[in-house]
Amino acid sequence: NAGVMQNPRHLVRRRGQEARLRCSPMKGHSHVYWYRQLPEEGLKFMVYLQKENIIDESGMPKERFSAEFPKEGPSILRIQQVVRGDSAAYFCASRRRGDTEAFFGQGTRLTVV
Amino acid sequence: GQQLNQSPQSMFIQEGEDVSMNCTSSSIFNTWLWYKQDPGEGPVLLIALYKAGELTSNGRLTAQFGITRKDSFLNISASIPSDVGIYFCAGHPSGGSEKLVFGKGTKLTVNP
Fold this sequence. Notes:
Helix content of chain B: under 10%
Number of strands of chain B: 11
Number of helices of chain A: 0
Oligomer: heterodimer
Structural class of chain A: mainly beta
C-alpha cells in the first residue's frame, strides 16, 4: 500500500505567483487534513476535508488560500499571490472514515523568493 | 479553541536513559495520538489511544490516555541514538469537527 503522497516535495515560487500543492491520500482514505509547519515549530492546523466537502477551515487564512478535495483526484492546497511569509513546509494527512489514526505525507517545502 | 500544552519543549539525555513527556489540555479529548518527526520528513504515527485509562506499548514506547481525558504521556525506555527527533502529541477534541489538534512538540536529543 502506498502511503500518503505529496508533490512536489520542493516548490520555489516568486512573490505574486501561485502555488499548488497536491496530496494523494492512502487508498481507501476519504478524509484529508492540511497543516503548515515553520522551522523549529509545531504543526498548525489549516483545513479538514472529506471528498467534495470542506468540514473545518478554521485554520485557513481568509485570503489567498483555498483547498479542495474533489471526488476524483488528489486534494489541492492553493496559495495565490504568494508572499515570503508563506514559505513553510506544508503537510497533509489522511485517514479512513471511522478510523482515528491519521497518516502523513512527506510534505511540500515551499520557498517564496 | 482547543489547545494542547506539550512539555518539556526539549530534552537532552544520555543513551540508555528513560524519557517521559506529556501533553495536557483544558478540554476533553476523544483520542490521543503520538507522532515522531525526523528532520525533513513527515510525522510518523507511533501510538494511538482510544479510551480513558488506556495504556499501550509499542516496543520501548509506552503511552497512556489520562483518566480525565485531558492528558496523555509518552515514555521511552532505554533510549538509543535513533530516538532523536521531535515528538508530537495530537488529539481529536470532544464535540469538535474531528479536526486533529497538535501540541508544539518535544525535541529529543540523545547523546551516545
